[in-house]
C-alpha cells in the first residue's frame, strides 16, 4: 500500500508529461498502480469534498490570510493543469535554495484546502509544491489557457477584498515568488573621501502588466514608495519603505 503523498508525487510526474513507464522506473511503482490512481488517488469521500466557492451562497476560503499568500505565489510561480482524472493540480515552483519558502508554501496550500494532500516533487534545482483538487479553478479563477503575461489577469471582487484585508501576505507571496531582497552599493564622497555605501533594496519582476499593477497597488495601500526600473521590474529602495518591507517580509530563507 502506498500513502497519499507517494501517489500524489507519482501523479505529479505524470502531469509534467512523463510517461507511465518512465515514472514507474523512477519510482519503482507499477504502471498498473499509477494508472489506477489517475481515476482514484484518495478515498471517495475526500474526492467529492465540498468547496466554499461552489456552495449556493459562495463564501471566501476559511483561512483568508493563507489564501492571500498563496494567491501571491500562484500569480508569480504557479500554474493549474487538468489531470486525466478530471481533477486539477496546483503547482508552485520553489527554488531549492529557500527551504523556508517551500515549507511556507506547503502550509498555505494545506490551510487553503485542508481536505487535500500536498506533496513536493523534486526537479533540477527546484521543487514543485503540488496539490490535486477539483476545486483549484474555483479558488483561482485567473486559471486559463496560455501564459499569464499573454492574457488579462484581474481579481474577482471576493479576492480583492481578501487582498485588501491581508495586503502584506499578498505582497509577501509575490516577493517570495518573483521578487528578492538584495544589497546594492554605490560610492559617495564624504568629507572629501570616497567611501563605499551599501543599502538594501527589494525587486519584483514579472512580465504581466496586470500582475505588476496588482503588486504596486498593494504597495500604494501600504504606503510603500516604489519605482519602475525597467519594463518588467519594480524597485523599493527608500530607507523607510525598505524598513517596512523588512518588518513584514524580509529576505527569503
Give a quick summary of the entry.
By secondary structure, the chain is an alpha+beta fold. The protein has 11 helices and 8 strands. Strands 1-2-4-3 form a 4-stranded antiparallel beta sheet, sandwiched between helices.
**Main sheet record:** 4 strands, antiparallel
Report the β-strand fraction as a percent range: 15-25%
Principal-axis shape equals globular
Oligomer: single chain
Uncertain runs are 43-49
Write structural notes for this entry:
- The strands form two sheets. Strands 1-2-4-3 form a four-stranded antiparallel sheet, sandwiched between helices.
- It is of the alpha+beta class and 253 residues long.
- A hairpin with a 4-residue loop joins strand 7 and strand 8 (233-236).
- It has helices spanning 4-15, 20-27, 31-37, 44-47, 64-77, 99-112, 136-139, 157-165, 167-178, 209-221, 239-248; strands at 78-82, 88-95, 119-123, 126-133, 179-190, 193-205, 227-228, 233-236.
- The longest helix has 14 residues, at 64-77.
- Among the domains are: 1-41; 167-248, Homing endonucleases (Endonuclease I-creI), CATH 3.10.28.10.
- Helix content is 42%, strand content 23%.
- It has eleven helices and eight strands.
- Helix 5 crosses helix 6 (99-112), helix 8 crosses helix 9 (167-178) and helix 9 crosses helix 10.
Amino acid at each position: 500500500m502506498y500513502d497519499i503523498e507517494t501517489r500524489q508525487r507519482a501523479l505529479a510526474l505524470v502531469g509534467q508529461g512523463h510517461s507511465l513507464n518512465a515514472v514507474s522506473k523512477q519510482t519503482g511503482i507499477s504502471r498498473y498502480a499509477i494508472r489506477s490512481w489517475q481515476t482514484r488517488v484518495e478515498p471517495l469521500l475526500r474526492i467529492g469534498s465540498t468547496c466554499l466557492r461552489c456552495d449556493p451562497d459562495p463564501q471566501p476560503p476559511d483561512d483568508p490570510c493563507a489564501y492571500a499568500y498563496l494567491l501571491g505565489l500562484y500569480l508569480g510561480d504557479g500554474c493549474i493543469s487538468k489531470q486525466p482524472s478530471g481533477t486539477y493540480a496546483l503547482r508552485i515552483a520553489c527554488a531549492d535554495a529557500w527551504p523556508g519558502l517551500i515549507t511556507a508554501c506547503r502550509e498555505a496550500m494545506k490551510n487553503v484546502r485542508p481536505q487535500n494532500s500536498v506533496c513536493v516533487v523534486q526537479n533540477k534545482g527546484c521543487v514543485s509544491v503540488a496539490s490535486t483538487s477539483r476545486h483549484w479553478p474555483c479558488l483561482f479563477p485567473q486559471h486559463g489557457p496560455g501564459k499569464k503575461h499573454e492574457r488579462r489577469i484581474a481579481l474577482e471582487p471576493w479576492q480583492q477584498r481578501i487582498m485588501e484585508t491581508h495586503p502584506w501576505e499578498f505582497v509577501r507571496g509575490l516577493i517570495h515568488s518573483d521578487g528578492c531582497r538584495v544589497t546594492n552599493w554605490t560610492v559617495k564622497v564624504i568629507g572629501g573621501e570616497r567611501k563605499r555605501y551599501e543599502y538594501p533594496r527589494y525587486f519584483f519582476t514579472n512580465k504581466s502588466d496586470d500582475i505588476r499593477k496588482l503588486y504596486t497597488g498593494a504597495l500604494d495601500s501600504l504606503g510603500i514608495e516604489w519605482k519602475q526600473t525597467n519594463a518588467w521590474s519594480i524597485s523599493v529602495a527608500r530607507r523607510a519603505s525598505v524598513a517596512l518591507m523588512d518588518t513584514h517580509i524580509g529576505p527569503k530563507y
